[in-house]
Design a protein that fits this description.
CATH class of the largest domain: Alpha Beta
Number of strands: 12
Strand order of the largest sheet: 3-4-5-6-7-8-9
Distance between the termini: 79 Å
Order of helices and strands: HEEHHEHEEHEHEEHHEHEHHHHEE
Largest sheet: 7 strands, mixed
Number of helices: 13
Structural class: alpha/beta
CATH architecture of the largest domain: Alpha-Beta Complex
Amino acid sequence: MSMLAWIEDQRKIKLLNTLKKTKTLPEGSQGLWTRCENCGVILYVKHLKENQSICFGCGYHLQMNSQERITHLIDAGTWRPLDEIVSPCDPLQFCDQKKYIDRLKDAQEKTGLQDAIQTGTGMLDGIPVALGVMDFNFMGGSMGSVVGEKITRLIEYATQEGLTLILVCASGGARMQEGILSLMQMAKISAALQVYQSEANLLYISVLTSPTTGGITASFGMLGDLIFAEPKALIGFAGRRVIEQTLQEQLPDDFQTAEYLLHHGLLDLIVPRFFLKQALSETINFYKEAPFKRKGVIPYGIQRKVSFITEEKVRRKWYNVERNSSKNETATNKDDSSSYLEILKSFQNLVDSFDEKKLTKTNEEMQNKEEINETIANMSNREIEWRYSSLTSNNNQKNTFIFEKILCNY
């Protein structure tokens, strides 16, 4: 046997051994055990999940998927997902060792998700919140155009509904397979957050888990009013080796960890996973009771068509207001009823071609079943764009809402 033939045989043997090792285990034994990334202890997966994926030996926080995080954060039966069916495409026809579209299909089959984030609303200890949770198991949690779009829609929904926003970050950064389209999501999300935080004056809490790197850190990950992190979470922008080679310096051992960032003022709090829900709940309650909060305004928005469920809720709310208005109520209840009537009255004016005469309607005139039916019909069939404007008259500046146009009739 020649030397070349022997080398070729050894190569084939090595390839066969590699294929044997990479074969999936039978279903009975698959995924029963795992190893801690920090201390190397062998852990039983069932017990590990019951312990919120925290190592029994060293307390290290292992990765969790998005569904597990939602289960631990949101009250049972209150989670309502948003934009579940939004799916990614391949605008650049990208192909490296494997086609991008094939990578997407494999990740979708593996995780059961359309992309690397789940967004929705729910109750956190009875507090309504808008929640977005990234999933590192989907292509490393990378941010493509779908992730950016879902986060932006969540922020805009939270802005119009006045909900506290919580984003749980776990990502390697922008998705290279979508090129500039993925990088543009950083600016889009930041613009939506600027309206949410600076105009509407609402609370945004960012929760950084391991790892949070790249474009996520450079955009919404570090824009939170409060920034929480899990213990020993890897948080950074560029990789450690890249920074060392650029600076020609040896970096500290705890560089880019949550503790290092907290020490240098880049984080507000490090919260163990067991206490995260309680910490979020207490923070939101404390914010709600703040005595010197400034009321915010929304500079623009779109009132979309309502669903049948929302329509029924409006009807029931209206009938309750109508019934309670005939009784003697406390001042608090009267204020609540009148504020709701004003909201409904504004919407009636909005969908009726913005007739100025309608603006003088009183609450009593609105208590007409024909008008409430007409209003709900318009809410169900029309989509309206509006903006907030500053009008100047007689040298006095006055802020007012301008309902610009009806976008579409269906």
